[in-house]
Amino acid sequence: MKHRILLVEDNDRLAGMLRSFLESLGHEVRALADAETAIALLGKEKFDLLVLDLKLAGMNGVELLQRVRRNPELKELPVIIMTGVFRGEGYARAAAKLGIKAYLEKPFGKDAFLEAVGAALAPPPGRRELSAMLLDLYHGGKSGVLQLGGGTRVVFLAGEPASFSSPGFVPFLVAEGHLLRGDLEKYPLSRPGKMPLCEAGLLSYDELQEQSRLFLSKVLIEAVLQNQTPQFLPDAGPIEPPLTPLSLPRLLYQAARQGADRFGADSFLNRSEALYPLRTGGYFRLANLLGLGPEEIGVLEQLGQGKSVREIFASAPPARPAWFLDFLVRLGMVELAAGPAEDRDAGFPQKMLFNRPIEEVVEVEVQGMNFDDLVDELSDSIDLAVGETGMAAPLSASEIDFEQEVQRDYAAIQNKNYYEIFGLSQANFSFASLKESYFSKTRQYSPEKFMQLSGDTLSRAQDVLSHYANAYNTLSSVIAKERYDEMLNANVIGLGGRQEDALQARIQFQSGKVFLEMEDYNNAERALQDAYTLDAEDSQTSAYLAWSIYKNPANHGSQVALEKCRMLLSKSLQMGRSAEAFAFRGCMLLDEGRDGLAEGEFQKALRLSPQERHALGGMRLIRERREAEKKGLFKRIFG
């Protein structure tokens, strides 16, 4: 089905690629580079999907998303977020509160992008039908086949997922970097199914089992969150190996947790606040299967004390744990009664409850606090706002507006080197002081607060957090710190925008080269990957990153890593003829026993740099091999 998609991305090259992907599927695409034009176009034309980069010049993507959600006509518009700045689950959860369909961290693959687009454009049927079906399968211990969208078949044995077959599994492996398309063409699978991947040597059996479990969890959780209505057939039929059993209670818990931001807490509490949760026998049987977090355990610890729902959530933000109580009710672990009553017994002895020793589950006593203690505690939290005169009284840190804190921090980092940002100097530097200062400064920049900002303040908050992260990562690495100190002493340091990225790229590149000389290939690959992320168009960085990946023992035997090395070296040579790139390619060919081709690469390197040590060493090894071959031939001829 054809859809109209608005793509907002200021990287022309990436925008062109994404547009071609979408148009190849028959979609109509409008591509824009700025948020102002996008918001104007959204007010005039109708789109089925918005694909949005968060970091844009002028109005940024977060502010555009906020405006879209405040517009009654656009608040239901599906949105996919792309970002190379805000990484991590915390930012994804915060963005989810604004109703996004997918959160893609750059770099991402074509398959992952198109999968997100397909999911965002899929029509949502009713949710509770699938949840109820899965619970019915589990409680009834039923066996059979659950047919999901996209041709995926999930085999259930005794009420739990045990195996699957899906045309999406191989694309999943490719998207996750566990298979190469070239390998699939070179080593075509002998028959349908997953086991031929092992038979062809493309995956080990352990890898196949692990990736099968991850894929099966992913598709089932997505099916629950997307409210699919699959068909269940009671005849399991043939079961495709390997078996990949999953715990259905844990899987449903993970799905409920991921969908917590969309849970109607107010509606649930209005219906249930006067009721009393009672623990059932299922509570004791299932509590150790769920792998709960501290927030959920906090809810469990309040059960069995004769409290109503209203009393349980009286001292906590109800929107957060309310979804969990609803989940316990739906799973049959808790019943909601009209009045207080005794919980049911477990019926069997237990050493652990929700994976903690029974004796540790005790009520924490509230310690008394006298007036002097209260004064001491409050005095520790006092923080003066900017300015020294004309203030009637100091403000506590929690009372200072977050936007004021951002402006203050932004002003404080201007024209300061990395040491000065943290109140340190080269002379008094210590890792303990650096760590303490870094976490003190960044603790206030939570994902939830970020999503409340807009305009210039958000851009400045991004810059502040980026400076803090770059400064901390540089000074906490011995090698990177040495390179930074050299640049600092040479007076080549400057902060701000692209200059900051260029500085970080230089530091990480130089650090990576030092790690290579030390034969610390793991850290070399990490540093050079960071440099490449910051400046992917530098030919030297591409070449050295390829070499670090090739030399890293952790990558030995990985066809994916080898193909990445070749790609990076080809890219390096396309951007600029470099002696190192020719030499590194020659060494790889030499290891493959292709001496003639390797010699040609070494000669190209030496024409550019007569002292290139890898090329000189490679030529010397080729001569030694040829001399050995001559001696062997002479010996065979003349005895």
Number of helices: 30
**Structural class by SSE content:** alpha/beta
Give the terminus-to-terminus CA distance: 77 Å
Q: Biggest β-sheet: count, sense, barrel? A: 5 strands, parallel
Helix content: 40-55%
Number of domains: 5
Q: In what range is the share of β-strand residues? A: 5-15%
The neighbouring-strand order within the major sheet is: 2-1-3-4-5
Question: What's the CATH architecture of the largest domain?
Answer: Alpha Horseshoe
Number of beta-strand segments? 15
Radius of gyration: 30 Å
Query: Which shape, going by the Cα principal axes?
Result: globular
Averaged pLDDT: 79
CATH class of the largest domain: Mainly Alpha
Instruction: Find the CATH topology of the largest domain.
Output: Serine Threonine Protein Phosphatase 5, Tetratricopeptide repeat
Low-confidence sequence ranges? 359-400, 492-498
Describe the structure.
Helices cover 54% and strands 9% of the residues. By secondary structure, the chain is α/β, with parallel strands linked by helices. It folds into 5 domains: 4-121, Rossmann fold, CATH 3.40.50; 139-246, no CATH class; 259-360; 420-586, Serine Threonine Protein Phosphatase 5, Tetratricopeptide repeat (Alpha Horseshoe), CATH 1.25.40; 587-639. The protein has a 5-stranded parallel sheet with strand order 2-1-3-4-5, sandwiched between helices. A hairpin with a 2-residue loop joins strand 7 and strand 8. Helix 10 packs across helix 11 (248-258), helix 18 packs across helix 22 and helix 29 (595-608) packs antiparallel against helix 30. The longest helix has 26 residues, at 613-638. It is globular, with a radius of gyration of 30 Å. InterPro entries: Bact_response_regulator, CheY-like_superfamily, DnaJ_domain, J_dom_sf, Sig_transdc_resp-reg_receiver, TPR-like_helical_dom_sf, TPR_rpt.
